[in-house]
From TrEMBL:
SUPFAM superfamilies: NAD(P)-linked oxidoreductase. NCBIfam families: PRK10376.1. It comes from Dyadobacter sediminis. This is Aldo/keto reductase. GO terms for cellular component: cytoplasm. Residues 21-282 form the NADP-dependent oxidoreductase domain. One of its GO terms (molecular function) is oxidoreductase activity. InterPro entries: AKR, Aldo-Keto_reductase, NAD(P)_OxRdtase_dom_sf, NADP_OxRdtase_dom. CDD domains: AKR_AKR13B1.
Length: 283
């Protein structure tokens, strides 16, 4: 495991679109089980607006969040969008109920997903579209065919993947350029260490989903002393560790609270020492 001594504040998606590395994930602005609309839509809109006002210019969503309601909420809250705001979305899942996420890599479904996201987000072009999962029922070459068409048509600018291993990334790259990978990764779960290192070497963004692992309180006793030294919360330290872990990591912590959002944003200003980083990495 390697790290950089200083944390760059920004990263260029696809080598072109510069964004702040601390972004926002919209998944929590939905109902229970990521099903249905946000319980308080006006409050949810305020969170989105507060995120942009705080400097977030990278928001991650998916057509499956709600489904569809999250994309609609984002467009209602923020459209017309600031010129520097990148909204990333995902496709490739069906929703059959709360906490139910069957994979659907049918090319026709993918085609409909892309057009639906464009309409709901009120975009002419999706800057970053991500395949939510590989579907064993369809060769990924078939699944990605409509994505290739969408890129050629100017509907999608860049393409990413989610929850993939290195072999799958390399297979997808034979079809289309891949600029980002979104995998489960956090201080308490580092199963995708090799994928993170691969993306760093290739100049791809690595976007950890679940960056706080259902609450860093599980690790609180172990990181409390470091948090106290920085006058920070355990959540802020967990995010700061990720930012220091690799310069290609982009964070998308989600919350339905403006107060929690502001707390998360402060993580970008925490500079962990190499000693702090090493101590945390040994947990």
């Amino acid at each position: 495991m390697s790290t950089t001594t200083q944390n760059p504040a920004t990263f260029r998606i696809g080598g072109e679109i510069e964004i702040n590395r601390l972004g926002y994930g919209g998944m929590q602005l939905t109902g229970h089980g990521v099903w249905g609309d946000a319980p308080d839509r006006e409050k949810a809109k305020q969170v989105l607006k507060a995120a942009v006002e705080a400097g977030v210019n990278f928001i991650d969503t998916a057509d499956s969040y709600g489904p569809h309601t999250n994309e609609v909420l984002i467009s209602e809250a923020l459209h017309p969008y600031p010129s520097n705001l990148l909204i990333a979305t995902k496709g490739g899942l069906d929703r059959t109920g709360p906490n139910q996420w069957p994979v659907n890599g049918n090319p026709q479904h993918i085609r409909e997903t892309i057009d639906g996201s464009l309409k709901r987000l009120k975009l002419d072009c999706i800057d970053l579209w991500q395949l939510h999962r590989f579907d064993p029922k369809f060769p990924v070459e078939e699944t990605l065919a409509p994505v290739v068409d969408a890129v050629k048509a100017g509907k999608i600018r860049f393409v990413g993947l989610s929850e993939v291993d290195v072999e799958q990334i390399e297979r997808a790259e034979k079809v289309i350029e891949i600029v980002s990978v979104q995998n489960l990764y956090n201080l308490g779960n580092r199963q995708w260490e090799n994928v993170l290192d691969y993306t760093a070497q290739r100049g791809m963004a690595f976007i950890p989903w679940f960056p706080l692992a259902s609450g860093p309180d599980k690790l609180k006793s172990k990181i409390e002393s470091i948090a106290e030294k920085h006058q920070a919360t355990t959540a802020q330290i967990a995010l700061a560790w990720l930012l220091k872990r690799s310069p290609n990591i982009l964070l998308i912590p989600g919350t339905s609270s403006v107060e929690h959002l502001q707390e998360n944003m402060k993580a970008a200003s925490i500079e962990l020492s190499d000693e702090d980083f090493t101590a945390l990495s040994q947990l």
